[in-house]
Amino acid sequence: MGEDIKKFMFVNRKAPYGTIYALEALEVVLITAAFDQDVSLAFLDDGVYQLKKGQQTKGIETKNFSPSYRALEGYDVEKLYVEKESMEARGLSEDDLLVDVIVLTSREMGELMEQQDVVLSF
Amino acid sequence: MPNIEVNGKSYETDEEGYLVNLADWNMDVANYIAQSENLNMTDQHWEVIEFLRKYYDEFQIAPAVRVLTKAIGKKLGPEKGNSQYLYELFPYGPGKQACKVAGLPKPTGCI
Amino acid sequence: MLHIINKSPLSSCALESCLRIAQGGDILLIEDAVYAAASGSALEDKIREAMGRFRVHALMPDIDARGFSERVIEGVSKVDYGGFVDLVAANENCQSWL
Question: For chain B, what is the mean pLDDT?
Fold first, then answer.
């Protein structure tokens, strides 16, 4: 089994409700979690907005899926990376995010990407 | 969309019998669905149903069986947090069957 | 790694983010991203600077379609669909910066 484990990175670059990308990515992550792979999530650019605390979607009649990021730990998906530049460009800090994340510089993020077997972009 | 009739009230379900509106759920509806699944509901069944509803309330998803099993083990102890126990209660799958009774959508990634 | 970009650099930050984060390798500009390969745009300096760290390619059918065949920045490698496939095959991994 051991040698069959691959490093999967899901790259999230879109804000949560304007397009379907973020929700689709989350669903794919939840499904992939069943296959015991080495999964990590990266949040870049507007993707950082997916993790913003305090989302209230009642007014737009759309399901608020942000609490589901907190379920990822139970799915053994524990590596959530946020690019520092993207976060800061949006006036956000770790305290604004609804899950614990690892903040990486652009360079560190790029290096981590290089180490992946599979990169899936959303 | 198919409907189920419980106590003279009509509830919308999908083709597989899952409630469409989460807010429709109540004990009567749960009992009705359980009966149509040939489940003889006991306290142990209800404990799992209650657990699922709380999980959904917190995370907005129905957990995969593996995740449910682990989470139940954490909360209710290892003698309940194993698939044998859960499959004995819900022979057609704790994910599929228990979620249906709990009025939740079918779990994401339920294969 | 092969980085594929398909959005205009003037309407999306995909190219900019790729240049900030990616650590070298190949960049392939396709669809609306080929405007980044045109000389004289506000992006030209960025592309020239990127060519120091990346091999920059552009998909010719997309460039031709947009009327920029004669204005591709020198040093940008022009590829056809076969070249696209070769790039994918030559890299262990690729990422689409959607």
Answer: 93
- Virtual torsion, Cα A41, B74, B83, B87, nearest 10 deg: -110
Residues in C touching A106 (Cβ below 8 Å): 20-21
What percent of chain B shows pLDDT beyond 70? Answer: 95
Query: A43 near A81, Cβ under 8 Å?
Result: yes
pLDDT higher for A11 or B106?
A: A11
Does B111 map to a domain?
Answer: no
Look up the ipTM and state it.
0.89
| Nearest C-alpha in A relative to C13 | A45
C33 confidence band (pLDDT: 50, 70, 90):
very high
pLDDT of amino acid B107: 82
B99 among known catalytic residues: no
| Domain with A99 in it | 2-121
Strands (E), chain A: 7-12, 38-43, 79-83, 102-104, 118-121
The domain tally of chain A equals 1
Enclosing H/E stretch for A85 = helix A84-89
Q: Which chain A residues have a beta carbon less than 8 Å from that of B61?
A: 30, 65, 68, 71
Quote the number of domains for chain C.
1
Considering CB atoms only, which of A33, A65, A75 is closest to B60? Answer: A65
Q: Tell me the per-residue pLDDT of A30-55, one tens digit each, with 9 for 90 and over.
A: 999 888 899 999 999 999 999 999 99
Q: Is residue B106 part of a domain?
A: no
| Residues from chain A contacting residue B66 (CB–CB below 8 Å) | 34
Which of B4, B6, B61, B110 is flagged as catalytic? Answer: B110
Distance CA B41, CA B50 (A): 13
CATH of the domain at C61: 3.40.1260.10
How many domains is chain B partitioned into structurally?
A: 1
Distance CA B90, CA B78 (A): 17
Of the candidates A110, A111, A121, which has its C-beta nearest C97's C-beta?
A: A121
Half-sphere exposure of B34 (CA within 13 A, CB side): 21
Average pLDDT, chain A: 95
Domain-embedded: residue B16: yes
